[in-house]
Please model this.
Amino acid sequence: MLNAMIRFALRQRLLVLAMACGVLVYGTLAGSQLSIDVFPDLNRPTVTIMTEGHGMAPEEVETLVTLPIESVLNGMPGVERLRSQSGIGLSVIHVEFDWGTDIYRNRQLVAEKLALGRERLPKDVMPVMGPISSIMGQIQVIALSGDPAKVSALELRTLAEWTLRPRLLTIPGVSQVISIGGGLKQYQIQISAQMLARFQITLETLQHELSQISQNTAGGFLEKDGQEYLVRNIGVVSGIEDLRNTLIGTHFGKPVFLKDIAEIQEGARIKRGDGSFNAQPAVILSVQKQPGADTVQVTRAVVEAIELLRPSLPAGVTVNPHVFKQSDFIETSIAGIRSKLLGGSILVFLVLLVFLANLRMSLITLTAIPLSFLFCAIIFKIFGLSVNTMTLGGLAIAIGELVDDSIVDVENVHRRLRENAAAGSPRSTLRVIFDASSEVRNSIVLATVIIALVFFPLLNMGGLEGRFF
Model:
């Protein structure tokens, strides 16, 4: 078979040259479209379930929320492990599935189980599945800061939550944007116990009335002059004044409004953490990517979106998208490996030129390096692989074996052609090349197979390490 391949390559030289040019063009195009990352994006199919238990202690969250959900999820097909964390008012459960399972099918199975087990949970406790995120975690950190004399912490967090975050979530490849720091805006109703007693209103009555506010109701429709007019009761709260004028009951036939028994104001929610940048208070936005997304392209898109929003930001507000970028590490590592490959190629060329003492033979041997890399780019594109330190490291190792095979073949052909030229009755050049390549081809293939067998035990490794190799 090897002799047939050599014979075909010698007879169809133009076709082989055209195929090499095709690999050169398509490989370059495929290489430019490959996703770039630090490590392979090995995302084990995992579904994260977050449940808020307001006012519950960790022990209560574990007993009333975490355990019922875990009992419902146990036994699902493909589940490998359940991990849970129960904190103050929060339960987080990670459901890990087998490698190779469809994450969307897994989320559907989890959603069906949660619907069945919702009756076991306390009232007003609603489990929510988190977004599909990459194992690489956050790819960028953005700092939003401002002059305290011009913009408050409340306005800064509002700007991050309702301006920056929605815009960044529209970028393809962004899975989640988490805001930290500043002041999370809320309407605070500070009830006076003295006024409650004066107007004889209980807390249960007040809670019931407040739960009914901010709702629109329909009143059917009205026919007039051959047209139908929709009748609506607008009750949605749009500001503090609407809250203050909310009716909560009567006292001796007179209406009692919320402003009569409480003070309503805008304020920040009680903090359980804060954010800072350069030792100054700030709002920090953490950007997480979707599995398989190109970290470098997503980061560039995020920076472009922020630059477009920058002119519309209020005076005194500054945004820095370069606090942390995973793409910086990627580009640095890729540039380092590229420089090493370039230096290695130049060194290989010089060694070939010195030992072969023939520029043509050295160039022929050197062409195997870029053609092989471009063919690898095509294979990467077909199988959905990314360019990362693992794959580039493997290619850097393989370049030695690749050049060694080329040197053996080309050097033997060069030697046989020189002997044929010195012979009294020289044979055909193509025949000499065929015989010279056939002499070493079996040995080259066998040596390459033996080296490849050395890496086969790595394929049997388990866990995340096995997936990496």
Q: What stands out?
A: The chain has a mean pLDDT of 85. The longest helix spans residues 389-422. The longest strand covers residues 79-87. The chain is about 50% helix and 20% strand.
